[in-house]
Specification:
about 40% helix, about 150 residues, alpha/beta
Length: about 150
């Protein structure tokens, strides 16, 4: 991966969903199911186990209605991102105790140390834009969400 990576390179409209569940654990499971369809993920079971292990260490709810569950494992060949949306919000144990409306799930290989930090920081930088977040919550179709992310790169 070069320094010129773009977040949308690791995402596809098929991995952008409206979450049906009302609980954090079920929402995470929904996203695991979606992200595990990616060719970059060789084991849905391992991915799910690692997501929940990471979540037990510390909530990935970063505040402002956003969560970024992220893992690295050898069962993942390259970066992969899925996005889940729940406009009504989900109780998530976020650092600001507010419900989460957007979940950005990220998987990476253990070999991607420096790139992993760059992907996370690049995503968090984008998520500080309140207008961008409002648009993500308002847009109806996954393809349009994907296009919005592409426009903001």
């Amino acid at each position: 991966m070069t320094n010129n990576f773009r977040l949308y390179d690791f995402l596809s409209p098929e991995r952008i969903i409206d979450i049906q569940s009302d609980s954090k654990d079920d929402a995470l499971k929904e996203l695991v199911e979606v992200i595990a369809t990616s060719k970059e993920v060789s084991s849905r079971k391992i991915f799910e186990k690692k997501v929940f292990e990471r979540e037990r260490l510390m909530s990935t709810g970063i505040g402002y209605g956003i969560a970024v569950p992220h893992i690295r494992d050898d069962s993942i060949s390259n970066f992969v991102i899925a996005i889940g949306r729940k406009t009504a919000g989900i109780k998530y144990d976020s650092i600001d105790n507010k419900p989460v409306k957007l979940i950005f799930m990220i998987g990476a290989s253990h070999k991607q140390d420096k790139e992993y930090v760059r992907v996370l920081s690049r995503l968090v930088l984008r998520l500080k834009n309140k207008e961008f977040i409002k648009q993500l919550l308002k847009i109806k179709h996954p393809q349009d969400i994907y296009n919005l992310i592409k426009e903001h790169e």
